[in-house]
Amino acid sequence: MIGYVKTFAPWIVFAVLATSDDSRWGALAAVVLALVMLVIDRRGGKQWDALIIECGSDMHAAPLAPRS
Does the UniProt entry include the keyword Transmembrane helix (predicted)? Predict the structure, then answer.
């Protein structure tokens, strides 16, 4: 059960933070969280094929994140 919550944590963070006027900050938080989790899982020995949802989270939220 915890594995599913951890996998969808970037989406949950995005949904919570995107309820304000500007959803870009929620997307930025989701990208950062997904990248951190991806690095931790890869260092822990998980293969890329087991990280499809994490990679998809980054690819979905990255274009929505704010740019300077």
Answer: yes
What would the DSSP string read from start to end of 1-68? -HHHHHHTHHHHHHHHHTTSS-THHHHHHHHHHHHHHHHHHHHTT--GGG-HHHHHHHHHHGGGS---
Model pTM? 0.78
**Residue whose C-alpha is closest to residue 3's, from 48, 37, 45:** 37
- Paired tokens of 29: 């938080």
3-25 tens-digit pLDDT:
778 888 888 888 898 877 777 88
Dist CA 22 CA 53 (whole Å)? 24
